[in-house]
Every structure is written in C-alpha cells, then in structure tokens.
Batch of 3 targets.
Target 1
Amino acid sequence: MVKQQFMSDMETRLKEFDEKMAKLSARQKPKSEQARMELEKTYFFLKAKRDELRDQLKAAEAAPSDGWLKFKTSVEKVYEDMVQYMDETCARIDGPENAGLY
C-alpha cells in the first residue's frame, strides 16, 4: 500500500471512529455509578489514543517516502487497540448481545 493511500484510508477510519465516539458520548448514561465512571474513563482514554494516532499520522506524513513504513505498523496497532478497547468496554456495560459500536 502506498503512503498516500494508507494515509487517506486512516483518515477515513478516524472520521468513522470520531462518529462512533460521538455516539458513545451521546448514549444514555448507565444507571450504575460504576458503569458511568467506566464509560467516562473509556471515552477519555479513547480520545487520548485517537490524539496519539493523529500525532503518529502527522509524523508518518512528514517522514520521507522510504521512512514512513516504520510508522505504518504503529499506527495500525494503535487503531486496532482503540477499536478493541471500545468494543470490550461496551460489552461489559451493555452485555455481549448489545455490545459495541463496531
């Protein structure tokens, strides 16, 4: 995958992720204090990870054409971790049958 295609794909994924984050934020808050705290913690953790991912994408964009591949694996890993964390948290809060935004 060439650099520009990868960067474009990741930007699209991040836009979708931001939309899902907005859905997570707009959800009705759980009745349980513990579940509310977990949901809030998840939201802020995911925001921090998304910001980390954006920083890595900027670094990859600025890297020379022969050096950007070292960022590719890292960017993909952070993205996969974000998605997995979101789904696992939603599963704990909502139950496995209603879980996840992905």
Target 2
Amino acid sequence: MSGALARLGLALAWLFQWLPLPLQSLLGGWLGRLLHASAGQRRRIATTNVALCLPELDAHARSALVREHFVWLGRSLLERALLWYAPRARLERLIRVEGDVHLAERSTRPVMWLVPHFLGLDAAGTATQLFQTRQVCSIYAKQSSAVIDAALRAGRLRFGRAEIFARTERALPLVRAIKRGSAFFNLSDMDFGLRDAAFVPFFGVPAATLLAPSRMARSLDMIVQPVVGELLPHGAGYRIRFLEPWTDWPTDDPEADAARMNRWIESEIRRSPAQYLWVHKRFKTRPPGAAPVY
C-alpha cells in the first residue's frame, strides 16, 4: 500500500470513528459480508479451522459460523479507528470491564495478562490503559506499511501508559520493561513456528504452541491473569473480562502448561465461537510427515 493511499485510509478512519457505534457496527457487518464473499483464501482458512476444531458441526452449521465470524471481523476492523482516535470519555462509556482489573496495580509480583485472539482484544488492550494505572507492555506484528505501522503504534500508545515491541526484536527490552514494573499483555495463541514451541493439542489437533509464556512466568515469578475481550452486539460496546488468576500455572512442565492454556482457550471459544480469530493459520506448522491442512 502506498503512503498516500494509507494516509487517505487513516483520514477516512478518523472521520468514521465519529459515527454512532450502532451505525459503525452496521457498516462493519456489511464490510464483513463483503470480505466473506471476496476474500476466498481467508474464508477457506476459517472453514478449515472450524472443521478441525469443531467437528461436531455439520457443513451447514460450519458455513453459518464462518459467515457470522466475518461479520464480527468486519466490525473489529472498522471499529479499530474508534479505539485509536475516539475521546477517552467516550471509550470509558463504551468499554465495560468485569472482574479484577486492578490486580496488577496491587501486586508486588509482575503480572502477565494472558489474552487469546478474540476479536475484542484491541478493546482489551485499551481497557488496560483506561481502567488501571500500571504501565503495560506488549508485542505486536510490525506492519509492512510504515504509515500504517506508525498509526498503529500511535493508536495503541496514545494514553501514555504502554510500550510495545515488534515481534522481530529481541526479548531483552520486553523483559526489562516487565522488571521495571510493567504488566505484560501477552497474545500467545498463534502459530509462530517451532522456535520455543511444541506440538500441543488444540481441540485435539497438534498445534505449534509457544512455551515461552510458561517459561517467562516461571523465571520472573509472574502472576498470570487471563483476559478476554468481546464485542457486544448491535454496537452496544465491548465487554472485557479480567478473570481469576491461575494458582496452578506455571509449573515446571512448560508443555503441560501449554496444554492447559489451550484447553482454557478452547473453553472460551465454546462460549463465543464466532468471535475467535479463525482466519489465522493456526495449524500452519505441521508435525513431521503430516500433510498440510491449508
């Protein structure tokens, strides 16, 4: 994408975020339906993932779930402008926080927020800066467009309580931020290959799963608190659930911890299956001798 086109898109996004959220939601749903019709590769990836993870669904139910997923996906893409640009007071009205959002503030130990890739995760990241005072650090995927990358960083850092590191950077700056007192907003459920990962069941399918969350939590004596972000229907806003911290995680067995993490994510997906990020190639990395699934 050219810089001029990216800047035009960002200008339109800034204008779009002033619309009432129910109207944004409606337009985002239309975008999602357009993407479902036109983005054949991503539709096939989502269909494959749903078939592998939820085999109890018949073909009609799988197709319906994928269509619904794209509606939520379209919403999440368009509403990102709201999270990047809307006034703080408006976001505080739209984001509903449940559970102990203040755990990191009180804790004398570092805190890891374990945040799976539901479509409300950007709203969850915003919530950690709006509703508690602890500094936040996280990792992000650097964008190929310098203009979009700068806008993404500015949008996620605009409240002055966060720092983010590109996934391609070394881990040392992140560890230093945690040791300085930042809570770690950790998105750990994607396939990044087998570096510091193992094949662990995800809905019964071997999935390359990071061992780093367990190892980091153990080495830094971190408290691990799961967090789930959810988009509410009809433009009603967002629900961010700060769940009870895990008392039996990490252990001295990173693979067992990864399996426990995956089982928890499975349970959350069953609560809200259409809002999980099915368009990601979760099973891109395959065990030796296994056929590709995409």
Target 3
Amino acid sequence: MIKKSRKVRDYKKLTKALPTDRYLNPKSVHIHLQNNRCKTYDLHVKEGDHVKLGQVIGVRHGGFFEQNIHSTISGTIGKTSKKVHRSGRKVDCIEIKNDFKETYHESVVDRTDAQIEKLTQEDMVDILKEKSLVGLGGSGFPTYIKLATKDPIDTVVVNAVECEPYLSSDYRLILEHPERVVKGLQYIMQALDVQKGIIAIKSSKDPLYEVLTQVLKVRFPEMNVKVAKLGNHYPQGWEIEVFRHALNIDIPHGVLPTKYGVIGFNVSTTVGVYDAIKHNLPVTKRHFTLTGDAIKFPQNYRIKVGTPVKDLIEKSEGYKKDIDEMVVVMGGPMMGNATLDDDIIVSKTTTSVIVLENKEYKEEQCVRCGSCVYSCPARIQPQQIMQAYKRKDKEQIEELEAYKCVECGLCAYVCTSKIHVTDYIRKAKKLIG
C-alpha cells in the first residue's frame, strides 16, 4: 500500500502547555572543546584556574574559521574528559565547577540603545564573531559569516516553525520572551539595512501569532514586520519550504538564499543576536526540551550550556520504572542522532533530548511501493539511492542527486517495510563525499 505523507504524529502537547522550568545553577558544567565543524582546539586555562561567566577559555579551530570557547558559569576549572556530543560522538569537554556566585567577566557590559543605533554591519559581525554565535536550531554554522553577506537583502525571515515532533522549546521561548525575538530581528535588519521582516510560524500556533502581533503593534509599531502563518506539514521548518510558503520563492538546491534577496535565522539564533549585541554576552543559556515516553515528567527547561542531561532527568523525576531498555535521541526524532548513553552534555546547538522505550522493528524487504518517493520533499528517489548504495555504485548515487537529501527522515517514517531509508541515503552521501 502506498503511504504518502507530509505529516507526522505530534507529541508537543507533552511539554508545550507547561511554563519553562529554570535550572541555572548546576553543580558543574562541561563545555565542549570540539564539535562537528571544529576538530582541534587550544585551551587557555588549566585545572584549578578560576574563571568568570562569559570569559574566553580557549578557541576551536574549524576549516575556515575559529570559535572562541566561553565559560557559561563562574567557578573553578576541572578535568578534561570525553562526553557525548549531539552528533553522537564522544568529544573532549572541560569541566567547570560552579562557585554559585554568577560573577560576570568584565567584557559583559550592556550597550545603550544609542550605542547600538551607531553600530554598522561590520561592527555587529565582529561582535557575533567574538561571541561565537552559531545557528542554534542545530546547524551550528557561524552566524557572523551569514550576517557578513555582501548581497543586497530585501527580507529577513525568522524561522520559528519548529516542525519536529516532541520539540516545543522554541514555542516556549517565543511565548515567554517575544520582545527578545523582535529586538534580535531589529538588530539583524539594522545590520543588513533591510526594511522588511517576517516571523514564520505554523498556522496551528495561534498563541504565538497573538503574542507576536500584539508585541509588534504595541512595542515596535515602526517596524515593518509581519507574522506569517505557514502550513502544518513536515518538514515545513526546512529553510527552502519556509521561503517557498512565506515569500513564494523557490530557491534551487545549492544556491544561497541571499542571491534571491532573502536571509533566514532560527528564532533561538535571533535571540542570541539580541544577547550578543545588547549585553555583549555569548550563548550561556538556552531553552531545551526533555521529553519522551520513558521520562516521568517531560518538561521544557531554561538551562546553562554545558549542563549534564542526567541532572535534568533527575529533575524530571527520572525514568519510568516499567521501561526495559531506552534509546536517547539528541535533537528531533526525525533528524536527530540516537544513542543508548545518557551521559550527554547540552551544547549550544542541542535543542532537545528525547528518551524513548527501545522497541525492536524487523526490517523487511523493500516492496517498491513508492511511499518514500511520493513523500520526499527534496523530490529525489530514496529507494533507488538506497539500492545504489548497497551496490556501492558512486556514479549512480551522483546521478540520482543524493546530495539533495536534507535527511528529514520522512522516507523512513512512511516506509511500509520499516527500512531505515534515511540512514542508507546518509551513508550514500558520505560515500560520494
């Protein structure tokens, strides 16, 4: 039976109605020294050193950029150890033991509105570079590089769709701090000399629409910003889908949106821009969803970057006792990475952890039903790419344009034979480099 779908079952109600719980004083944090884009690093501190909140303690080295590493609390440097990163790999982390004094580094000083009004694009790019702001929706791409574009921009789009099942941290962020979202957008529009902004949400999120439109009307009447209600299908949060439905623009694969006069930022990243420009503060906190059917009390948290997930599981009353074996998903269930290890540290780009009962599914033979093809938002041939990968046929994989896959997970979700099609395509992409 052909199973075409652009919708996935939603589990956001487990957490979205609850106020965000603040957990900002962990006994210690573990700061990632490596990530997907930066494999090497230099550490400027040693065990026993005292550091302040917002202090630069090292630098990561990427292929074409560097990232300062900041302390997210004040306290004493501990040991370096291996911890699970959101990519599923274990990477080096440095422990900082909390002194519970929340002493800010001398560089963390608010800018006045008058000072901010004088900032140029180059000024803001330098600030975001020094504060190491990256895409907080999970991409991790340096924000200063995106903001430094020389292409003329007509419209800035804030992506607040949050289309993954289970996740509701961005929803709570907007509901509880709408002015920070709008101010961050205002700073981006100033940097790029743009007069038009759009905040894109799902059409089902009426509370966000009401809050944002009211804040824009009352507090920011001078801004030309509208709240756009988009579709409820998955993956509506994919940037190409956002631009297609918010602006009626189809951007070809491999072409930068800036070539079409549009640029997009995740809503959490937009708030990060606000914190960096207004408070000269790196990302030390983030909204985070801990949920799943193996957790007793799913909850959204406001936490310090570097917080152990085990602390949050304990705060959520632990695991359900009738669960035999668990699988831990970092990120959304459709596009995240799974592990059986809960020794996970929340990085800047970790949006969520979902703990589910581990159920075994028997993979059956592909029956060529076409469900994956009909459901694919990138309009490629998942089943044929999978077969080409099994043959290790690089030429065929390239001809089938496997590189266009956004790894949304829909092909695996709709597969009538329970095949992990997305995983095969991911491997195929790696095979052709």
